[in-house]
Design brief:
about 280 residues; alpha+beta; 5-stranded mixed sheet; 5-stranded antiparallel sheet; 14 strands; AsaB-like; CmcJ-like methyltransferase; oxidoreductase activity
Length: about 280
């Protein structure tokens, strides 16, 4: 049975500030920003209905919708997450084999990084506290803009620019929970056809002590259509596109959403970010 849920999305506010200054967030204190916030983000909190994909008659498609739900068993368990570096090579191999077997439009896959998230019981009030694992990402975003893709590729493949610059590639995420069935802060994805990228998207600088990146944040529109999967199990994969090298294909804004119907333990998840080439590297 499909279970649609009601939630609140913190969209980036449509404020005149962003006509003059680019949105940014930093993982360190920025002296020029007041109230000890290392960001110039302002938010508009919008109630939305998030539709359960279990109620869809037709499955979503990566190249049409920007995301898709698929099945794949994994040997990686929640217990392994504490020492995931030991199992990273194994998991990368699993993911690459899965992609080669299911996405023939690509000629080559390279896993770039891996992230394990374990929600702290106090999240989102745990923000700013020292936690062992990364927390759910609670803003609607794409991990990379087209410009951010260039930055990411330079960092992921240092000194190999000649092998990817000018190539046709996508930056994909492969996301799953480590325990199920999960309904706690599930990952919500937005149907790309419901997003006007010229009106609803803002490029954002992500600043770190050792570097920087550029991603996309989302501004509100009544046209946006959001989805999630109720009772997600570890074999339920979400594959979605953040961007592509030419900025022309479907992309998937996504975020973790609060679910007032949650009855399970705090969410644990693992995601891999992959570069998928459509021509030979």
């Amino acid at each position: 049975m499909a279970i649609d849920i009601q939630s609140i999305i913190p969209y980036l506010k449509r404020d005149p500030l962003y006509h003059q200054f680019k949105p940014f967030s930093a993982s360190f204190r920025v002296e020029s920003v007041t109230e000890e916030q290392s960001s110039n983000h302002m938010f508009e909190y919008v109630p939305v209905t998030v539709h359960d994909v279990r109620g869809l008659e037709k499955p979503m498609d990566l190249d049409v919708n920007g995301f898709c739900y698929m099945k794949q068993k994994t040997s990686v368990t929640s217990e392994m997450a504490n020492t995931i570096a030991t199992y990273q090579e194994l998991y990368f191999e699993e993911i690459e084999d899965f992609l080669y077997n299911n996405f023939p439009q690509y000629s080559r896959f390279e896993c770039m990084d891996l992230q394990v998230r374990r929600r702290h019981p106090d999240f989102p009030n745990s923000v700013g506290k020292r936690v062992e694992f990364d927390q759910p990402a609670g803003l609607p975003h794409c991990d990379f803009s087209p410009g951010g893709a260039v930055i990411q590729m330079s960092e992921a493949f240092p000194g190999q620019d000649k092998h990817w610059k000018g190539k046709d590639f996508d930056l994909l995420n492969i996301w799953r929970v480590l325990k199920g069935p999960n309904d706690d802060w599930p990952l919500a994805v937005c149907h790309c056809k419901s997003v006007d990228t010229k009106k609803d998207c803002a490029t954002n600088d992500a600043l770190y002590l050792d570097g920087f990146g550029e991603n996309w944040l989302m501004q509100a529109s009544p046209n946006h259509r959001w989805y999630y999967m109720s009772g997600q199990q570890p074999e339920d994969l979400i594959v979605f596109r953040n961007t592509d090298s030419f900025g022309e294909r479907t992309r998937c804004f996504h975020m973790a959403i609060k679910n007032s119907l949650t009855v399970c333990e705090p969410r644990e998840s693992i995601e891999v970010r992959v570069v998928a080439f459509r021509d030979v590297m």
